[in-house]
Amino acid sequence: MSAPRRNGPHYSVSADERARFFRDGFVHLEGVLSDDELAAIERDYDRFLRREIAVPGKDLCDMSGDYSRTFEQYSIVNVMLPRRYYPAWVGNLYEQRAASIVEQLHGAGMAIDYDQLLAKRPFKDDAVFEWHQDQAYWPVFPDSRTATCWLAIDDSTLENGCMRFVPGSHTQPLRPHHPLKGDRGESHTLCCDVDPARDEIRPMPIRRGDITVHNERVLHGSGGNRTAGWRRAYIVAFRAQRTIEEERRLGFTHSHNDERKVLESVGTRETQRG
């Protein structure tokens, strides 16, 4: 009988899974949280959706639209930095297991850069997360170790808008990105072009309690929600501690309330890096 993958704050990553993460830029890990373990997180998650936990300014927004929409109009409810607004979540079991996974992938010296909730409302065909690379949202630093853990609160399916990736795209140059609507002051969302004739698109349906872990440069997005239920996800993103410290020194916190616009600086840094 094989050893259990979950053991307190630890989750075991196999050698094959680690190889797939570096080869494809992402990996699917099954059963990171049990249903009982997920239930406590789910209760607080839904408090955010009911707006019982206050989130100020643009850190509560619609990632499929612009900042002018009312909450009731949101197709993708986005909560940035939930642990900032609900400190009881700091150090929760999901964060602990995610940290153990990231250490197995990247070694020591990693820390949480930001967290995020993304919930697609029922029957929202426009709850589309456009193709993008996370690296387009922030500056480039020498230590490029990154791992974004994406936890499914609900079964994530083709019908409700599961994640999809372009395998191996993290090894290619960063693609040009542009704001989805207007400029960055109107809509935070960035997007880029993906060509199905050239790019392999791999949907990644996963079960409740599973996660995907992806690299900041891999192309990814997701489709709309055509079902009667929510599609809820909880993201915890890790980067090298020294990279986070440099980000914060520049005043970059991943809050949508930040005034800093990094799209132009990303292009400049990318060019400088060659």
Give a short overview.
A hairpin with a 2-residue loop joins strand 1 (6-7) and strand 2. 23% of the residues lie in helices and 24% in strands. With 274 residues, it is an alpha+beta fold.
Structural commentary:
The chain has one domain (13-273): q2cbj1_9rhob like domain (Jelly Rolls). It is 23% helix and 24% strand. The chain has helices at residues 15-24, 35-49, 82-85, 93-106, 241-249, 263-273; strands at residues 6-7, 10-11, 26-29, 60-62, 76-80, 110-120, 129-132, 146-152, 163-166, 178-179, 190-191, 202-204, 211-214, 219-222, 231-240. The protein has a seven-stranded antiparallel sheet with strand order 3-13-8-15-6-5-4. A four-stranded antiparallel sheet has the order 7-14-9-12, with no helix packed on it. A hairpin with a 2-residue loop joins strand 1 (6-7) and strand 2.
Per DSSP E runs of 2 or more residues, the count of β-strands stands at 15
Percent of residues in β-strands:
15-25%
Oligomer: single chain
Shape: globular
Largest sheet: 7 strands, antiparallel
What value does the average pLDDT take? 91
Strand/helix succession: EEHEHEEHHEEEEEEEEEEHH
Task: Just name the CATH architecture.
Answer: Sandwich
CATH superfamily assignment? Answer: q2cbj1_9rhob like domain
Number of helices: 6
Q: Using the coordinates above, name the CATH class.
A: Mainly Beta
Structural classification: alpha+beta
| Rg computed from alpha carbons, rounded to a whole number of angstroms | 18 Å
Overall number of structural domains: 1
Percent of residues in helical segments? 10-25%
- Can you tell me the residue ranges where pLDDT is under 50 for at least 5 consecutive residues? 261-274
